[in-house]
Input
Amino acid sequence: MAVELSNKSACIIPPCPLVTSCLTGSFSFFFPKATRSLRRWCAASNIFSLVVATCVSFVLFWRQTTTHSIQQYLWARIPKSDFCLKIGLLIDPLTLVMSILVTTVGLSVMVYSDSYMCHDQGYARFYAYLSLFVASMLGLVFSPNMIQIYVFWELVGMCSYLLIGFWFARSSAANACQKAFVTNRIGDFGLLLGLLGIYWITGSFDIYELSDRFIELTSGGIVNPIFANTIALLLFLGPIAKSAQFPLHVWLPDAMEGPTPISALIHAATMVAAGIFFLARIFDLISTLPLAMSTISWVGGVTTLSGATLALAQKDLKRGLAYSTMSQLGYMVLASGIGASQSALFHLITHAYSKALSFLGSGSVIHSMEKVVGYSPDRSQNIFFMGGLRKCMPITGITFLSGTLSLCGIPPLACFWSKDQIITESWLNSPYLGLIASGTAGLTAFYTSRIYLLTFEGDFRANQINYIEPYTSSPSEYVTHSWGRARLDLLTKRTGNNLTSVDIEREKFTEVANFATLPIFKGDRSYEGTIQYYSELNLSHPQESNFCMVLPLIILATPTLLGGLIGIDSTQKGYDLNFLLDWLISIPSFFEASKYFEKLAEVLISSIPSLSLSLIGLSISFKVYGQFDKIFDIESNEKLKREGIVNTFFIYVRDWSMSRGYIDYFYKIYFVRGVILISKLILHFDQWIIDGLINGAGALNLFGGESIRHAKSGRISQYIFGLIIGTIFTSQIFLICCS
Output
């Protein structure tokens, strides 16, 4: 009975952040002045509610390791003839593991945001959106049926729209949130069709019930295999968009326009994790369909490789991490497609903590860089303006390095164990998928270590004027403020015509740093001219972030370093229906330490091939980017010689990466312009044909009525005269025709 009461306490996990979000949002809407004065209390209440949810999640998870039970608690029913919808909670190992992931990462992001967003005018609004985002993901995780999953699925998408476009006055942020919203509508429409199809086949929305019925009907040959695979692929269309799989991945890099804490939450535990969670939830259903499974695995493989190649030459720190997320999500989808759902979810968890650590570390870097180079994201997020930050930001540098090595797949860090499982399963399933997974591991080690080396090693380059020109693209000629973009040349009008280009560049840096008279978006946040903060902008080098931003980095470094050791023993367990149950059981005891270390050595020996590729990628990256005086000769158009196969290869790789694989260009030419052309044709058809017929009929009646009105004078003599004339005219025509 105690276990039952404890499991029922799961009903307070999603409402905790939901209630505080509603209260914070309502309070800030109805009492804006009071909210501004009490905004730190609003943040504290949101953090406390998530602490409660986290504690309950850990308690239930601990009990789950001993009971291994699956329970549902249903509180309401919506009956209508033979249709009955049950609303409640589903508590199983998958639910509790995801609940811990969402609450712990969300709590770290909330604590981090208190310092990161402290000067922003939308501070309380940000926390309201953040709590709603976490509550929506928790509701999705605990949903026992497809209707609840779809409702919270849409809420997660809505929250991502609000947070990506948090600084909606910036045109780039407004466009980014609209792009994410529209792209996800494509996937959500396919998901809706799939849900309707699965209900038409099984007559149920309950997850376990519809899975059993679907397996029974498909194995018995009652359902057409083509139709069954179509339904499965329609369901998969939702995770394609939500988890940024090719070809609906285009929204993910632009999502970096939101605040950096939101980038960490989206890429670690909410938005993109929702798609992988959904695949794990319906894995029993799709695992009986070989065609659907093959399609899923190849979509994941293509996404894995394309994401890695697109990240090879990115200059924006956050965008490089975004493409890294895309590539790692491809690993998870690939694993789901080949039947390794346990490995997919294992990699989701290890990657979540590593990527949250990387993104929060990048936010710490950007936060400090803005005090040196100004408020333009094209400067503060450009890794070629950084360098040597480990010396002045040691905690951020060390924690970021741990996240980097984890993503590279270096033992004993977390992502090594999960990625090695996926690579091994890929080789067993298909040599082509194994080759893609192994090759991407080397590319991942290359571009992630490249980001670290350019950011934290070498010498600080922002104050070296010679490096400014080759890496300052046209967008960086703008500084963004709350009502649009202002050209930097307007700020330097009074510099005179007798200055050299170096003086002008230095003057631009000085003007940007001291441009404190207008409400400015400080890279990732808006300021209204806080004098105390502007006094810090005369720094020549970045400084370490404060305690509230550093503490989450230290906390997230722990699961990044040790989290992967929990799941090692699960590689021999197989993939049964409750694929997380074995993982929970496999937590080693003290008395089994020797056996556990034997297993550890066995896994390390079997992972030598994939580990070798990762080490090769690390070595190449260090060889290329470890020589900081030659970095710019490799990356710059102006200094790169175009003769030679190697140099030509570097040019094409850089152009491919910076142009996003030309996929956005392709979409703009063939889809966006096509839709606009069709819309214009429909508009003209509506204006000239539909409206033309209606307006023409109305005009004809109007002119006809006016002409008749003028002909009718009301005099009987005129009417008789007209009747006689008409009669004579008609009779004459009749006589002519008869003769």
